[in-house]
């Protein structure tokens, strides 16, 4: 699906965007163990629930668009939209995926993003993003996400969901040993990209956006998210994937 006429042109050429996205993928792989298995589960469940591939998909907090790209290549007839607040990451997504994925700027901490994204989606995904929001905004997010889903549409939320119900030996409560390394790699990635002269205006915009917006680092057990989804009106909700402290919840509108 083509980007909208209002979308800013990509600043980076494709080769540059691809290179930065590759190193981003390595950093994210350090944070989320078995990320590929999460993405495969997410896609298989989305197909199984509808009995066919989704046709209208929204990836929220989609960053540079790795998941959006996978979904676009797996479901070639689907219209995939990626929304994020970060102009630098949106530039990477646009540089690599122009013509394949529609990109939108949007802030999940206010309900206004729903008007921008529109409705009727049969799949909404949000991976490693909700922990940026404080609990009240996460609760509100579930209601907002439901508004943009078609009846019977599926929301999949993957994030840190440490679970007291599981033995600590399974690593469901404690940080994985690689997380500190991943934090360093994350800081290095941002330091490196900050050297790109081409991106200076977007880096300045990014700094202004995040200046008074520290990540809330809110994490809650899967049961908290399941309850929040049900309270927001989702009919069915449950955990579909877990690896250590990371889990994914599926909720049906
Ligand atoms: C850890 S990254 C994950 C990105 C992507 N989902 C992935 O798995 O590669 C978190 C993402 O959430 C986005 N984000 C944080 N706060 C946001 C907000 N209020 N609204 C929209 N996106 C937000 C960040 O810009 C970033 O792209």
Q: What is the CATH T-level topology?
A: Rossmann fold
**Gyration radius, rounded:** 17 Å
Mean pLDDT across every amino acid position: 91
- Please give the alpha-carbon distance between the first and last residues: 25 Å
How many helical stretches? 9
Which structural category do the helix and sheet elements fall into? alpha/beta
In this structure, how is the largest beta sheet organized? Answer: 7 strands, mixed
CATH class: Alpha Beta
Low-confidence stretches: 1-6
N-to-C SSE string, H for helix and E for strand: HHEHEHEHEHEHHHEE
Give me the CATH superfamily. Vaccinia Virus protein VP39
Record the strand order, biggest sheet.
3-2-1-4-5-7-6
Q: What percent of residues adopt helix (DSSP H or I)? A: 40-55%
How many β strands by DSSP?
7
> In what range is the share of β-strand residues?
15-25%
Number of domains: 1
- Name the bound molecules: S-adenosylmethionine
Shape: globular
Task: Please name the defining characteristics of this protein.
253 residues; alpha/beta; Rossmann fold; 9 helices; disordered N terminus; binds S-adenosylmethionine
Q: Mind explaining what this structure looks like?
A:
The chain is 43% helix and 19% strand. The model is unreliable at 1-6 (pLDDT under 50). It has a seven-stranded mixed β-sheet with strand order 3-2-1-4-5-7-6, sandwiched between helices. It has a single domain (14-105, 112-126, 137-214, 234-252), classed as 3-Layer(aba) Sandwich (Rossmann fold), CATH 3.40.50.150. Helix 1 (14-31) crosses helix 4 (87-97), helix 1 packs antiparallel against helix 7 and helix 6 crosses helix 9 (222-231). The protein has helices at 14-31, 35-50, 66-74, 87-97, 112-117, 135-147, 179-193, 200-211, 222-231, and strands at 56-60, 79-84, 102-105, 121-127, 149-160, 236-243, 246-252. The chain contains nine helices and seven strands, in the order H-H-E-H-E-H-E-H-E-H-E-H-H-H-E-E. It is globular, with a radius of gyration of 17 Å. With 253 residues, the chain is of the alpha/beta class. The site of S-adenosylmethionine has 17 residues, from helix 3.
């Amino acid at each position: 699906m083509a980007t909208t006429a209002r979308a800013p042109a990509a600043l980076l050429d494709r080769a540059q965007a691809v290179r930065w996205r590759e190193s981003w993928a390595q950093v994210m792989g350090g944070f989320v163990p078995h990320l590929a298995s999460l993405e495969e589960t997410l896609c298989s469940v989305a197909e199984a629930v509808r009995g066919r591939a989704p046709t209208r998909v929204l990836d929220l907090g989609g960053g540079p668009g790795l998941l959006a790209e996978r979904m676009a290549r797996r479901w070639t007839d689907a219209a995939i939209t990626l929304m994020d607040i970060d102009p630098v990451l949106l530039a990477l997504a646009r540089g690599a995926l122009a013509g394949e994925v529609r990109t939108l700027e949007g802030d999940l901490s206010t309900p206004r993003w729903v008007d921008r994204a529109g409705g009727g989606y049969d799949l909404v995904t949000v991976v490693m993003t909700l922990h940026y929001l404080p609990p009240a905004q996460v609760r509100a997010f579930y209601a907002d996400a439901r508004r943009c889903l078609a009846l019977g549409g599926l929301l999949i939320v993957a994030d840190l969901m440490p679970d007291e119900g599981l033995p600590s030996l399974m690593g469901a409560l404690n940080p994985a040993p690689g997380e500190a390394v991943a934090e360093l790699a994350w800081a290095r990635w941002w330091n490196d990209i900050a050297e790109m002269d081409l991106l200076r205006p977007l880096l300045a915009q990014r700094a202004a956006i995040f200046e008074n917006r520290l990540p809330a680092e809110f994490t809650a057990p899967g049961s908290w998210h399941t309850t929040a989804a049900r309270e927001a009106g989702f009919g069915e909700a449950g955990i579909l994937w877990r690896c250590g402290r990371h889990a994914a919840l599926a909720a049906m509108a």
